[in-house]
Amino acid sequence: MSEALKQAAKEVLVRYGGDSFPNLFTSAKGTIVTDSEGREYLDFTSGQMCATIGHNHSAIVEAVNRAGQKAFHLFSGMIPEVVVELAQVLACDWLPGDLKRSIFINTGSEATEVALRMAKMYTDGYEVLVLGGSWHGVTGGAASVSMASDRKSYGVPTPGVFVIPEPNAYRPYIPAATEEEAALANLNLALKMFDMQSTGRGAAIIAEPIISAGGVLVPPKAFMQALRKAADDRGMLLIFDEAQTAFGRVGTKTASEYFGVVPDIMTMSKTLGGGLPLAAVSTTAKIEDAIHAKHFTYYTSHVSDPLTAEVGLAVLRVIAEEHLVARANTMGSYLRGRFEELQQKYEQIGDIRGLGLLLGVELVKDRNSRAAAHELGALTTRKCFEYGLSMNIRRRPERGSVWRIAPPLTVSTDEVDRAIAILDRSLKESLDELARKKAA
Q1: Phi first, then psi: what are they for 268, rounded to 5°?
Q2: Which of 274, 337, 348, 395 has the fewest CB within 10 Å, making it most exposed?
Q3: CA neighbor of 128 nearest in space, from 282, 208, 217, 239
Q4: Does the annotation count 150 as an active-site position?
């Protein structure tokens, strides 16, 4: 059956980009995924960064069963009790500042669309500032503010988008004495250019607090605080896209908490649904009241679905009860330490960065030139998978060769040690293979 299905996949599926694997997959549990040949792999990407508490956690399975006893789906105007419960938990236990009112949809792309619609209606503007290297989704508005995705051949993007070069301490656009000075120089120049071009119809600044697809870049706190001020000075709203950083992954409840900056709108997705399609957008009562008075709409077939709300509640409950926010710091420090050991061994590991259990490991040809080691990264990633470790590598030419490491928050020290052993073996073999190739 598996061989027949593998052949059928070539005939009946649309190929949608990204990494592809030779076999189909049959199951997942915790940090392990299993393919159609029964091979097991350590999953250090948490699926698509979504399996926050591990694949198929028993609490998620129970939540799906509970929803099956009540309702999976309702008419969108019928608000399920569980949706209100989830909104209460977010408002009381997780969201920073005055962010209190939430809407629940399906994906990160959809959350970006909601946030942009809110900001444009509230401000009566349309101009949006975004960070280079950002990823906010692939739908129309979301794609227009995503700078790490392919932008060619999809028609005319939404107008009014302006780019701020992302702060990159390892590869600064404007060298300066400190990381903070370099980041602020980027921002100041970008704001001057925006002000020269703006029609005075600013709507929002949207940012991933940690620029993940751009290479797991952690801006200085002063940079994020300056974004807050830049938005305020121009009558724009500040949107944080916390698809990958909310709910403990970076060792705080949200990245907003880490940076000490409260946005006007926060989008959340991957880490909330635990593997099911659940996203949320939260804002203040002041903003929600104003856009409601203007007849704000985002009315879809699956807004406020009870099934995913039930799962979201379960995910947040597990994170709280199992103290996974603190554990992300503990295990993140352990994982970083193991990578630092490899860095002492291999000249090609140029930089290790990130927060909690969201780490970026950048490969270079040598540390002096910092030239990106794309061939080494691709070969090592492939060998890791052959030996049972699934990792995600960012390999766009302009972004360096960066492993994005994000195992479930439930990952064990034994699993980290196994992953590092596989990576060590794969990296050594890859370097030997490339050396032989060069000598031939």
Answers
A1: -140, 145
A2: 337
A3: 239
A4: no
pLDDT in tens, 255-311: 999 999 999 999 999 999 999 999 999 999 999 999 999 999 999 999 999 999 999
Q: How far apart are CA 353 and CA 276, in angstroms?
A: 28
Closest CA to 182 of 174, 170, 192: 174
List Cβ<8 Å contacts ≥24 apart for 332-338.
332/251, 332/356, 332/357, 332/358, 332/359, 334/413, 334/416, 335/359, 335/405, 335/407, 335/411, 335/416, 338/416, 338/417, 338/420
- CA atoms within 13 Å, Cβ hemisphere of 323: 5
Give residue-wise pLDDT tens across range 297-335: 999 999 999 999 999 999 999 999 999 999 999 999 999
Q: With left for phi above 0 and alpha for psi between -120 and 50, is residue 188 left, alpha or beta?
A: alpha
Annotation says 395 is catalytic: no
Active site annotation includes 270: yes
| Per annotation, catalytic residue among 166, 179, 241, 242 | 241
Query: Does the annotation mark 19 as catalytic?
Result: no
Across the chain, which distance is largest between two alpha carbons, in Å?
Answer: 71
**pLDDT per position as a tens digit, 113-165:** 999 999 999 999 999 999 999 999 999 999 999 998 778 888 888 999 999 99
Residues 43, 127, 179, 208: which is the catalytic one? 208
For the chain, the C-alpha Rg in angstroms (whole number) is: 22
Q: Looking at the predicted structure, is the pLDDT value of residue 1 above 70?
A: no
Active site residue 135: yes
Q: Which residues have a Cβ under 8 Å from the Cβ of 18 and sit 6 or more positions away?
A: none
244 is catalytic: yes
Q: Is the pLDDT of residue 399 over 80?
A: no
